[in-house]
Each structure stands twice: as C-alpha cells, then as structure tokens.
Amino acid sequence: MPASSESITLSGDLHARPAGALAVAAGRFASAVWVTAGGNTADAKSVLGVMGLGATSGQHVTVAATGLDAREAVAALIAILGEATKVGGLLHASIAAEHVGTALSRA
After folding, report:
1. What CATH number does the domain containing 35 carry?
2. pLDDT at residue 91 above 50?
3. Are 3 and 66 in contact (CB under 8 A)?
4. 3-class DSSP state for residue 34?
5. Which residues lie closer than 8 Å to 95 by C-beta, 6 or more apart?
6. First and final CA of the chain: distance in angstroms?
7. How far is residue 58's CA from residue 62's CA, in Å, rounded to a whole number?
8. Whole-model pTM?
9. Number of structural domains, the chain?
10. CA–CA separation, 42 vs 46, rounded Å?
11. Rounded to a whole number, what is the largest CA-CA distance in the chain?
12. What is the pLDDT of residues 35-53, one digit of tens each?
C-alpha cells in the first residue's frame, strides 16, 4: 500500500479553526492520515485529536498517510497547515480545502 509523509514548521498555533479545516480536508481522502507533533500522534480526520496535540507556533509537525491517495492527502494537509496557522490564514485554508474537494471530484 502506498505511503507518504512530509513535515512542516508551524507559523502559528494549531487551534480549533485550523484543526477543523485540516480534519475536513483529511476526511475527503480514502487514505488513513495522521498528524504528529511533540511525539504525539493523532488521526488527522479527528478535530479533537488534532487539537489535542496542542501544536504551537514554531513546532515541527509531520503529516503521514497510507493508502491509494496518500501522496495527495499529505500534500493537501501540509498546504493547509502552512496557510491555516498563519495569522488570518483560515480563509486561505478554506480555499485550499475546496481545491482538494474539486480535485477529488475530478479524479
């Protein structure tokens, strides 16, 4: 089964709104997707799990996935983390999540 992972350093805290955008986007993929921060791992499709990581600005976060669309899932979630944790970045994260949905509907 295909697997993929990528890391990013957060430019802001991973609070409720970006965690929600991340979980919604992750839910659009068939692959199992995880987010790891500070030695703790959570199912990326779970808002509470992602929020429970308590990831903060400057922290190194890894997104990993296994499944047929693992590479696409990781790329999409890394893009959302890059935008959603910026100050005022939630709008961009919402747009990125919409693009994920559009790309999936075309596949």
Report:
1. 3.30.1340.10
2. no
3. yes
4. strand
5. none
6. 19
7. 13
8. 0.80
9. 1
10. 8
11. 37
12. 999 999 999 999 999 999 9
